[in-house]
Amino acid sequence: MSDYCLSAIDHPWHGPYHDREYGFPLNDDDALFERLVLEINQAGLSWLTVLKKRAAFRAAFDGFQVDRVAAYGEAERQRLLEDAGIIRNRLKIDATIHNARVILALRESHGGFKAWLDAHHPLPLADWVKLFKRHFRFTGPEIVNELLMSTGYLPGAHHPDCPAYAKALAAEPPWALTR
């Protein structure tokens, strides 16, 4: 079993995320945006830190509503930089606002973030990374890999012996539909 599958067992924060979200497909652009923002904010920190701050992130970023975050200006940016409940990293905050605007543009060109992901699936990780870097900010190989694995576009979230593997597979993640 993978290290995460083992370490998540009965953990108050990792357990619920691992068992009900990690590796499961997301069909809503706001939910995909949330996962992107959380993965970006995890860079250099532990996933536990991000999970513990998740509610504060939701509140700070208006429930991860893409339209609202894309409209943020300097006042909202400053508010976020002063919010002790979230990770106050200027580059990550700026990337979040920029990336919301990218998702708005993807609505015009592809019908949304999910539709854009679906239009490019399947790709090898290296190609995904290049594609993300062309459009989004703060999306290096590790962030892109975790985003795509955690949302079902790439395999590997769960070991086949993990009980969550069967549940995630039953939800028909994109990686499983292209085998």
Automatic annotation (TrEMBL):
Keyword Metal-binding: yes
GO biological process: base-excision repair
InterPro entries: Adenine_glyco, DNA-3mA_glycosylase, DNA_glycosylase
SUPFAM superfamilies membership: DNA-glycosylase
Keyword Zinc: yes
Residues where Zn(2+) binds: 18
Name used for this protein in its record: DNA-3-methyladenine glycosylase
Organism of origin: Halotalea alkalilenta
